[in-house]
Structure formats: C-alpha cells, structure tokens
Design goal:
- Helix content is about 25%, strand content about 20%.
- By secondary structure, it is an alpha/beta fold.
- Helix 1 packs across helix 5.
- The N and C termini lie close together (about 5 Å).
C-alpha cells in the first residue's frame, strides 16, 4: 500500500469531519489547508456579492494565499477535500494545486455540498493537476461507504 496523505479545506467543519473519517479508514496522515487570512462568517455569505468568497469565486484567477504549504514529497497518494462553492472547488484549492509538484502522485478528490454535485470540478481542476484520477461526493458518507469507495481505488 502506498503512503497516503489526506488534505482538506473546510470552513464549517463538514469537510473536516469527512477528512478525518477518511484518514481513519485509510490510516493516513492528514493536513488541513488553511488560508493565510482565515475566513470569517461574513466572508462566506454567498448572498452578498461583495463578500470575500463571492468576489473570489467570481474571479477565476483569484488565488487565496495558504498559511503553510503541505509537504507532499513523501506521499504517493493524496486525497484533496473541499466544500463545493458555486458548483466548483473554492479558489484556495487552485492555490494548493499550484503550490506543489504532484508529478508521479495519484490524486483523488472528495467534496461536500449542501445540495450541488461535483459538476465539472474534476475536469476543471485536472487542468492544473493532471495527477487527479477521480473525485467523489462524500456528503454524510458513513465509514462503510467510504471504505467501499476506497476498495474501488488503485491505491
């Protein structure tokens, strides 16, 4: 079995919970992708066209700075988790993929959402990170459901 790292970005705790369950199921290391400037509640108000998250998501070139980069050098397989914002990954996930060399790695995406699916997220992110193999929505997934998904992967 390869050395596995679970990375995730979470503002509400939902994706963090899934990431921790996935790390437990895989007996993997875990790393939280934290923004250099933490998001406040008002920053996440998708109804406000001037909120930080709305401004970032409306700018395809926005790259929120990460507080500390992940050291991925010693890992063969990396899972990257995030909430779905505006039907895709938050821009900080682009920052994450642009901040490290994923050559020779397998990357699996997992996401959480209040209602939307992955849509074109995998294809869009794969442009920045060709190492991405696939993605999966893990909303409310039980540990058994996660293990079933894991069993289908080439780890």
């Amino acid at each position: 079995m390869s050395k596995i790292l679970i990375t995730y970005f979470s503002t509400s705790g939902t994706t963090a919970k899934v990431a921790n369950n996935l790390a437990d199921a895989l007996k993997a290391d875990i790393f939280e992708i934290k923004p250099k400037i933490p998001y406040q509640r008002a920053d996440l108000d998708w109804n406000n066209k001037n909120s930080r998250s709305t401004v970032e998501m409306n700018d395809i070139n926005a790259r929120p700075e990460i507080a500390a980069p992940a050291d991925i050098a010693n890992y063969d397989t990396i899972f990257v988790g995030f909430p779905i914002w505006w039907y895709t990954a938050p821009r900080i996930i682009n920052t994450f993929f642009e901040s490290a060399d994923f050559s020779g790695k397998k990357v699996y995406l997992f996401a959480t959402s209040g209602g939307s699916g992955l849509g074109n997220t995998v294809a869009t992110l794969k442009k920045n990170c060709p190492a991405i193999v696939e993605g999966k929505m893990l909303n409310r997934a039980s540990v058994n459901e996660m293990k079933n998904w894991i069993d289908t992967l080439s780890l």
